[in-house]
Amino acid sequence: MFLDPSFVHRAGRCGLLTAPLLLSVPVLAETLQQEQETVVVTGRQLSADSEQRDSYAPGASTTATGLPLAIKETPQAVSVVTHQQIEDQGLVTSGEILHQAPGVSMTRRDSNRFGYAARGYSISTYQFDGLMTPIQGAWNFGDTDWDSAIYDRIEVVRGATGLLTGAGDPSASVNFIRKKPLPEFTGRLSGDIGRWDTRRVTADVSTPLDKAGRTAARFVAVRDRRDTHVDDMAEDKETYYGVINSQLTPNTDISLGVEYQQNRTDGAGAGFPMFYADGGRTRFDRSASNNTNWSRFFNETTRAFMDVNHYLDNGWRLRAAYSYDDGNYGLTYLFRSGFPGRNTGEGMSAYFANYRGDRSRQDLHFTAEGPFALFGREHEAAFGWVRTQDDLDMRLASPAGSAPDIGGYVNGKGDPVAEPAWGNLNSVDDSNLVQTGAYAVTRLSLSDPLHLVAGLRLSDWKLKQEYFGDRRNYSYSNELTPYAGLIYDFDERFSGYVSYTEIFQTQNKRTPDGELLDPVTGRNYELGVKATLADELDLNLAVFRSEQDGLGEAIPDQTVNGRPDTQAYRATNGATVDGFEAELVGRLADGWNLSASYTLANAKKADGERMNTLHPRQQAKLFTSYRFTGDWNPLRVGGGVRWQSGIYSDTRGPNGTTRVAQGSYSVVDLMARYQFTPDLSAQLNLNNLFDEEYYEQVGFYSQAWWGTPRNLRLSVNYDF
């Protein structure tokens, strides 16, 4: 097969030959001929697998526009948490990775529901290998809590990305990039132990399946068990992942894979009350819980996917990708609300619930992208069509007969309560959600230093739902989401950009009578500078502004009718976010990696009051690692700090609305890894070095949740 030389040059420059979605196994082989500028390619390289690079520097990305562009060529803020950073920081879940990503903040609702935000808004747009995946925000099927062992890296594009996702979400789009088979046989066995009886075992094996190296497979298995700093709460997780990549013809690659995840939490529950019945603040220690010994949560998800890529001789790539998910969900618990008496602990209300749910989801994606010539210049274009279908059936059982007495709540722990006999399961949320969209995007070379990235997406969104007995249909058709960005290359190292995206974002927030709020509409603006300070060291600066109408705002002390555990919202207009971001990431010197970022997101309502106050206005994150040279070469050490400004909530207290807050705080982490032999290494991660006390949740139903105390983890790895 022969490729046009200009395409090969362009591909190498922007990382296309190592783009995240190229799935063939054989290694690239090139033969340069002096007599003619022709490159003979006998195979294609694997994706830009960051696990093959000892660096925090990102590669190419298609998450923002669908075009395989280098970060410097993308007119938006893009951050990548690479495999090396994931390994150095000992991040074992996708949620932990997101918490360390530049500009992303985390808050939790209870033992198993987490929320992530960027640029002042909650993140609701996720992709897996570039396939947009809707997330059921109200029901936890584990979509953002996968084990990190199956991922090569996570890409985060901050700001609206409606071109690919159709949502135009002004916060961020997160793309989870799975591991691919490697060119040669390799494997790793890992064992971890740590505080709270943490025990984790991981096996990761990749092997060619034929002598020609055209087919290879990879298998990952994880078993993770641990107690927690919360009384009577323990987690048990299993993850299995298998993928086969094959080059069917010199021009066609296929990838087939299956993921299986099972998460279980014994002692699942809510946060602890922040007030006594007399209005005073509680002072429970960090083991405080609001659960029972029979409460439990589980999710089980199986995801199968197929990805086919065909490469034309003119440099274009055609892709067809399909993913099918089957999910099961369960939550059996007692939710204590209200305020206990200071001495007796009595006076709290009880909500007994036994939820069961099933979900099936299909994602289909057709794309075509490649170069074209016009007016004597080389350009790129991409076209795509996306369809997702999400079918959900949630059922709820209440106690059969009288519910047990819950007794009192004293010193951060409730009295023992017997599990009730449960009645019949009745459907409470039976829904069918279908989203479709077609998009086109191009990168035009207007001149040597000036490029225009422009695109348009046409989207449809339909929801049929029976919600707690009420039948409702919602639909939005022919919604246009335009996108435009200009990039100017000052020289080979510095570029500037400006971009504009319109916002159209459906929201899973309900009025007091249970109706869904209309979608959010608005605009997103961004201006930035990107600089390549060294071969693998990038500096990114950005200022941004978003304007939104129809944004859901929580109504104080108001829940959805018939749902005492579901917050009610109202639509507001004129919400804005202004902010600034700075990121320095990559390799400072041989063996020395750095990821440093600062974010300011000033989110305001139309009246000028602060908005989304459970997420910080400012964040700073830094992590660095260094591998010594000479006799100390086997040793790598590192450390970092994560700082955020204060958060607060105006929440219901015994004496009316009260503001509860968590001030600014810092968490410091350290690591050290020693390579005893080429095959054997050990790593220590010390998290929250100074044992900082802070809330991960404040005011959610007048309750709070302590952040994780200081803990130590030891990992031993054997490579073969």
UniProtKB/TrEMBL annotation:
PROSITE patterns with a match to the protein in the record: TONB_DEPENDENT_REC_2, TONB_DEPENDENT_REC_3
Membrane topology note: Multi-pass membrane protein
Keywords: Cell outer membrane, Ion transport, Iron, Iron transport, Membrane, Receptor, Signal, TonB box, Transmembrane, Transmembrane beta strand, Transport
Keyword Protein transport: no
Pfam families named among the record's database cross-references: Plug, TonB_dep_Rec_b-barrel
GO molecular function, one term: siderophore uptake transmembrane transporter activity
Residue ranges annotated for the TonB-dependent receptor-like beta-barrel domain, each copy included: 246-689
Name of the molecule in the record: TonB-dependent siderophore receptor
Signal peptide positions (record): 1-29
NCBIfam families: TonB-siderophor
All residue ranges annotated as the TonB-dependent receptor plug domain in the record: 71-171
Localization, UniProt: Cell outer membrane
One GO cellular component term noted in the UniProt record for this chain: cell outer membrane
Motif range (TonB C-terminal box): 703-720
Family: Belongs to the TonB-dependent receptor family.
PANTHER family xref list: FERRICHROME IRON RECEPTOR-RELATED, HYDROXAMATE SIDEROPHORE RECEPTOR FHUE
GO biological process, alphabetically ordered: siderophore transport
